[in-house]
Design a protein that fits this description.
By secondary structure, this protein is an alpha+beta fold. The protein has five helices and nine strands, in the order ββαββαααβββαββ. Strands 5-6-7-8-9 form a five-stranded mixed sheet. The chain starts with 7 loop residues before the first strand and ends in a 6-residue tail after the last strand.
Length: 169
């Protein structure tokens, strides 16, 4: 990979990439969002691809930038890495919500809808129904399943809790 970073710009919440070969590589991996001649990629997603050697940038700097806006950046990176290493495409929501969007295995964004909304929480998370309802309502409004990823950085994988709605009409 060319170490030329001249065509990579740090914006407030994401990277803007203008290198055509890098844009094509990221597209093939189901990463980033294309806009005209550029691709935007969140710092969390970029950190994963920097660790894998796809992006010629320091992973720690990208995670630091992500953590400036998101106190759960390290936990979300852990979840992204967990799923990506298992062949899933998972991306941070670009709509300002704290969710990660998980796609079905084998499908890329645009080929199929988001399968799950994942909310990432730290170990020791406690939640009453009043705190859970907004997430359930968002998932319901978007017609997605909701799952909570409980992250303990000392464990090999997150604990997943799936929530759903039921009607007894």
């Amino acid at each position: 990979m060319d170490n030329n970073t001249d065509n990579i710009e740090y914006a407030e919440e994401y990277l803007v990439i203008r290198q055509k070969p890098l844009i094509l590589k990221l597209r093939s991996l189901g990463a980033g969002v294309e806009e005209a001649e550029t691709t935007k990629i969140t710092y969390l997603e970029a950190a994963y691809f920097a660790e894998r050697g796809v992006l010629p940038l320091p992973k720690d700097e990208l995670l630091r930038r992500a953590a400036q806006k998101d106190p759960l950046a390290n936990e979300k990176f852990f979840v992204i890495k967990y799923f990506r290493e298992r062949g899933y495409i998972i991306r941070p929501s670009l709509d300002g919500t704290p969710f990660l969007r998980l796609h079905r295995k084998g499908f890329r964004p645009g080929e199929d809808k988001t399968y799950y909304l994942l909310e990432v929480v730290k170990k020791g998370w406690q939640c009453g129904i009043e705190n859970l309802l907004p997430s359930l309502e968002t998932a319901g409004r978007l017609r997605k399943e909701l799952a909570i990823a409980v992250v303990d950085m000392n464990e090999a994988k997150p604990l997943f809790i799936k929530f759903g709605r039921m009607n007894f009409d």
